[in-house]
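Lecture notes, unit on protein representations.

Consider one protein chain, 340 amino acids long.
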Amino acid sequence: MLELKHISKTYEGRPLLTNISFRVKAGETVCLLGASGSGKSTLLRMIAGLEAPDDGLILFDGIDLARTPPHLRDFGLVFQDYGLFPHLNVFDNVAFGLRMRKISPTDIDRRVATLLEQMNLNGFARRKVTDLSGGEQQRVALARALATQPRLLMFDEPLGALDRSLKEDLLKELRTILHKTKIPAIYVTHDQEEAFVIADRILLLHEGAIVREGTPADIWSNPGSAWAARFLGVGNIVEGIVNAKGKAKTDFGEFVLTCGHQHSRGERISLLIRQSSGAPEGLKLQVEDVLFKRDQFEVHARGGVRTGEAVSKGGLVIQMKEKPKIGQTIRVLVKIKCLA
């Protein structure tokens, strides 16, 4: 089991990571999700032994890894740019780590053949990696990482260079492989869709700190903060002011607060507005723009009337199965949640 305890790191005198602590259990895939500059790749490099933390401990099975060089940690690392050896063919790339460990040629042949079949690369053994497509090269990189049967797999934006269809296919294959091999994994990405597909547990990083941790379902249902909700795109964030006990005034009218938080009069708060077919709240909106998004329409609309109350300004983004007309007035049922 991998465990990080109170990891901190500064860069050019400014904090990059602050008091990071988490565990990765046997067979678990943990995703470090955050925007560029949040410190997630640096964190991965420290686990790999390529950088050292300023403070804190990195442990595996209770053993401090501070004095263990990268090549002795027995961790597999897959990069966005594949990191393949261009002068070696597919077979030799996958076999590289096995030869370094002085595995017998017979065992190398067997293990490489098994991995190439698992990666849908039958018949590719003698091909140059420079002749392969991006998706094929990433499959070779994954096979190479798996070949040595590492104690931990680490992925640093591994699908960032692939187009959408290739990314979706490889992501599903990777999820299947990780569940089948039971190798614990850390997956770094800025892509929310990737994180929700691949992860058993998500750590949401913002400005060098973990601001939310949980299963994909937990984080989607309760992002925990206005920043997290905006980053994940789970709904619309509306700013409001508490104007009476248990109520908040917004550009879309006055809402009753049911969050259970203690708020004082005049306090500024953030509300999460999400569509819900069975919700009691109803908003009347005027359509300003419509974008087609695969199997539904993304509708940009501005406030008009909420339950009989006139409102001034503010816009929402909602999803609809049927395309409305620009200028049309629509009614949307929503649930309101206060974000701490």
